[in-house]
Amino acid sequence: MAAGAASGGSAKSDTYAEARTWLLLPAWAVLGIFILTPVLMMLVYSFLTKEFRGGVIWEFSFAAYDQFFCSRGLFGDEPCAIEWTYINIFWRSIWQAGAATLLSLVIGFPTAYFIATRPEHVRPIWVFLITIPYWVNLLIRTVSMKFMLRDQGPLNDFLISTGLIDSPIHIVNTNFAVQLGLFYSYLPFMVLPIYASVERYNFNLSEAAADLYANKMTTLRRILLPAVKPGVIAGCILVFVPSLGSFLAPDLLGGAKNFMIGSLIEEQFKGNAGNWPFGAAASMILLTMVLIILLIFARQQAKTEKGAG
Amino acid sequence: MARGKYDIKAFPGFLPMTILCLVILYAPLVVVTIYSLNDSNSITNWEGVSFRWYADVFTGPESEKFKVAAWNSFTIAIIAATVSTTIATLAATAMVRGGTFKLRTVSFGLISLPLMVPEIVTAVATLIFFNSIGFTRGYLTILMAHIAFCIPFAYMPISARMQGIEDSYEQAAMDLYATKRQAFTRILLPLMWPGIISGYILAFIISLDDFIITNFVKGAGVETLPTAIFGSVKQGIKPNIMAISTMLLAVSIIMVTISYFVSKSDNTK
Amino acid sequence: MKTLLKTTATAMALALAANAASAEGKLVIYHWFEYIPQELLDKFSEEHGVEVVMDTYDSNEALLASLKAGAIGTYDVAVPGDYMVQIMANQGLLDTIAEGELANKANIAEEWADPSFDPGRQHSIPYQWGSTSFSVNRDVYDGEINTTDILFDPPEELSGKINMLDSQGEVLAMASLHMGIPQCSTDRDQLKALNAMLQDAKGHWASFNSDTAKEVLVSGDAAVGQIYDGFGAKAREEGANLEYAFPQQGYVVWMDNVVLLKDAPNRDNALKFMDFLLKPENIAAVSNYARYGAGVTGVADHLDPALATLPESNPPADAGTGVFIEVCDQETQAVYDTIWTNLKK
């Protein structure tokens, strides 16, 4: 009930219902022309025949999807068996992006909360403190990160000098390095939405709960978290989804020994393979997958809002 | 708000977490700053302190390129962030305050679409698209692509914030004969401010950082900082890139400091 | 908010104004990143009164992808590698240089005048050439290094410390040399053996990195790194105790070439630029900058003397032969693509 009060049953609000078409029109127009049209073109491309070394031939073909799901051996002449290669690549990417999202949440939530509870006039300073590093190019940040984590890098030197460890921890070219890199790439995308939500939170609710002898963790879990859930979800989406398709952190910090979704697709357009329909098909499968996850999110959210309201 | 021992807002462990977060964020940048002062041609060997790479940025053979690239990057980032934040604010108002309507789910999907498509796909598709409508690639094509893919990054914090604002404030204002427009600009927008600023910043840094899409749609002769830097990096990262990065950091810190004092003097008035 | 809008409006106006500048005599070059000295471009502009605009790409395949996505017709010249010249010619992306259109064509060194990838130099002129092999850190390993075993079946000390280029062409060509099989084999047993060999070799490799191929060697993160000769020289000059290997089994040789693109908007200026680059003093400036070889006669006088003794560009007498990366037909290429995917899955 408290959760319902905090989120204000906002889903039901229809204050601007009659203006909504006009409010949405700019977004529809811009995204429709510059994102949806290109994506639809890619959808068409995924069903075309590949032209050798890039490009497409305008003949309908299912070959791209066949390549994704069917394993036909090294020479492509065996009967179709389930192809695990690409499924594994997808699974690995989801796992890495998920771990990076969790890491961002665990560190980003307390940070966002801490910032939102500072006195009002210093909050912008904290917000900027989080985003200043992002003025430096992602590539440079990732390379510097790698430098930090090297076997002979500053981190290991520091840990050894403090006596915490005896020999360097090997971090570069591991999964953990990739997660750390993704975390580093997208942290503000977790912190800022949560901050914007917590900032709005009415702490009288927590006080009321405390007056009713709820302890802090209970208050956090039962009162605060439901109230700032939209911010948390927004943050998770903004970290998880771009992490899925990214390839800079996996390549530089993970050693690129294994394809991630991003590098697999990149290779189809910019690499030796030059298989545009397959790259398009893999993108469409990724898109469908993410779309389903997001819709489940949205539906769940609508449900809790309805139930609470 | 001093509540003595029992501060309802404070959680033990949150401060250390914040500090840890800042350490992780800034440690690599300290490395960048230190190595920008390196006298060596290489970034991995240390050969003493020197400012020659800073001089190189302004007077070296690439200085003109970097100057133009920085100008392009910042103008594009400012315009793209402003336009996309405006579009996202309007869209969020419709999505959160527009009641239930048929196209709501579709609209949500459309808004998050730029997040879901891998950048390289958007890049190739956008290039094909621009070419097929006969649009010459250049500053404008970069700008339009940036506005489009910045929208979800601006939208997410704004809509999250708006969901946390009860519409009773606006209702109360309208009960007191405020028009809808007044309720929006006088009540909702001020309450939305932290969300809008968050969205603006995210859109800004996303635009400032983009390489893949920009590289495909930019056309000949128009560089942004990431495309110019990426070019230099291919031959090995030279300390002048570190110097540029350090100067960008310095500029951002100066801007933040100024805005802090400006806002402070506003408050005291 | 108002100030913000004002700033935005001003920025927009200024940006558009800056964009409007243009000149009549133009040349649009599509080039690799950092591969031509700015001074040389300025010299060309001055000599011919032509405004030079340059755009850059980061791999042969990226160049092809961009041109095929519709960028053809907006550039005058590009600088593809050997096998890419052949591919681009096959795809009809190149214009033919007629007899007599290039005044300095005779300057092309004899051994580069009729290359397999562009017989008779119909579409291209030489730009720079070099090799792709690997460098070994001599502090870590002091045994025999002139063998491809170092990459594919390394000694204990080097296992797990090897960086490969993240490039299908270079890795698979080197692997074929290692096994002594053709680069475009259609023999099923050979292909299966190649696939199996690479799977085993991968266990010895630490990473695939092209962008930081030089850095990992200089910093000591990798003890062996597949690398271009010019990069290998730079890495050594930056202080790492590196030696560039010329394996007995052979190594990869490459040549980048300036090509005349189809539908070049400034075809005349493109030809002027090619003639300009065929003058020994000009192409030597590129060599001195990029540290690779030029394919033009008479450059020796203009070259940095250090280049002549560079161990990376002067193979020992007993070195294997250098080979170009070959262009396979579609069906064969599909198998190699699968092998590469298997390697990185």
From TrEMBL, chain A:
Gene3D superfamilies from the UniProt entry: MetI-like
Gene from which this protein is expressed: potB_6
InterPro entries, per database record: MetI-like (IPR000515), MetI-like_sf (IPR035906)
Record-given protein name: Spermidine/putrescine transport system permease protein PotB
Domain ABC transmembrane type-1 as annotated: residue spans: 90-297
Membrane topology: Multi-pass membrane protein
Listed Pfam families: BPD_transp_1
Localisation per UniProt entry: Cell membrane
Highest taxon listed in the record's lineage: Bacteria
Keyword set, alphabetical order: Cell membrane, Membrane, Transmembrane, Transmembrane helix, Transport
Gene Ontology terms describing biological process: transmembrane transport
Family membership noted in the UniProt record: Belongs to the binding-protein-dependent transport system permease family. CysTW subfamily.
Chief location category: membrane
Species: Roseovarius aestuarii
Transmembrane portions of the chain: 22-48, 94-116, 122-140, 223-244, 276-297
GO CC entries: plasma membrane
Automatic annotation (TrEMBL), chain B:
Organism superkingdom: Bacteria
Regions crossing the membrane: 12-37, 74-96, 108-130, 136-155, 187-208, 241-262
Gene3D superfamilies cross-referenced by the UniProt entry: MetI-like
Signal peptide span: none
PROSITE patterns in UniProt: ABC_TM1 (PS50928)
One Pfam family cited in the UniProt record for this chain: BPD_transp_1
Span of domain ABC transmembrane type-1: 70-259
Membrane association type: Multi-pass membrane protein
Family stated for the protein in its record: Belongs to the binding-protein-dependent transport system permease family. CysTW subfamily.
Protein name: Spermidine/putrescine transport system permease protein PotC
Species in which this protein is naturally found: Roseovarius aestuarii
TrEMBL record, chain C:
InterPro entries: SBP (IPR006059), Sperm_putr-bd (IPR001188)
UniProt GO molecular function: polyamine binding
Keywords, in A-Z order: Periplasm, Signal, Transport
Bilayer-spanning residue ranges: none
Major localisation: periplasm
The keyword Transport is assigned to this record: yes
Keyword Signal recorded: yes
Subcellular localization(s) per the UniProt record: Periplasm
Coiled-coil annotated residue ranges, if any: none
UniProt cross-references to Pfam families, sorted A to Z: SBP_bac_8
Single biological process term from Gene Ontology: polyamine transport
Gene Ontology CC: periplasmic space
Leader peptide range in chain numbering: 1-23
Positions that bind spermidine: 34, 83
Family classification: Belongs to the bacterial solute-binding protein PotD/PotF family.
Function description: Required for the activity of the bacterial periplasmic transport system of putrescine.
Protein name per Swiss-Prot or TrEMBL: Putrescine-binding periplasmic protein
Provenance organism: Roseovarius aestuarii
